[in-house]
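Morning!

As promised:
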Amino acid sequence: MADILHRVGIKSPINEVYKALTTREGLAGWWTSNTQGEGNKTGDVLQFRFGAGGFDMKVIGLQPPAQVLWEVIEGPEEWIGTKVSWELKQEGDYTIVLLKHQDWREPVEFMHHCSTKWAIFLISLKSFGETGKGAPDPNDVKIDNWN
Amino acid sequence: MADILHRVGIKSPINEVYKALTTREGLAGWWTSNTQGEGNKTGDVLQFRFGAGGFDMKVIGLQPPAQVLWEVIEGPEEWIGTKVSWELKQEGDYTIVLLKHQDWREPVEFMHHCSTKWAIFLISLKSFGETGKGAPDPNDVKIDNWN
């Protein structure tokens, strides 16, 4: 098993960052404009769609405003059954966000791509939190020939 | 043991990208302006310095233009003994770069930070390869309260 790990600090109140991870409007503001569903109750399902495909995430854990846990229930084969864990904490002016995309079965090349892409979207989340404007798909930064 | 993985695609010839990873001028163009030493022979040592500190890397493997392998011999305790592996290959117009920063002893919070920061510098490498201008330290994108 292998994990993708990331850390960003956002100059925005922790409750606002939590909202950006648990509401359709928030998620559409930094990850993908085409976000459907709900994300603020355990059992909710979120549907994230990109040009080529997407993911469905089931909310399996919430501790406002400190933790969000999703399980991938639909999407690329490599993603199914993996978990996406968000931990939030305040440090000075910053809300620190720790992301773990856990339990990849193999460290395949696609995992390398997704790791870099997660960083791009976390910078988008940071910008969304600090300025109100992120760069969600289809306006995200492209990193390679897989997009 | 835990690894940081990333993938970028750079619209630049593979030999140019290899040069950006094995020459002082190249490395100073996208990672840190304060780069000393040499990186194009096995046994060479590169010294990367940032505001707060830095790393020394020993070149332990080279296969031009496809592979570069460094071992961290000086720097933050968590980095010492880890390896940084670069794999390059051509795919259409792109030179694909696979980065592995391998053998972290524990998936500590600092590893989360370094993972996101690697992505930032890979985007800088991409920009350096495609336009001749990267964003090396001290002009790098800041991601959190650790910089």
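The longest strand of chain A covers residues 94-104.

Hope this helps with the figure draft.
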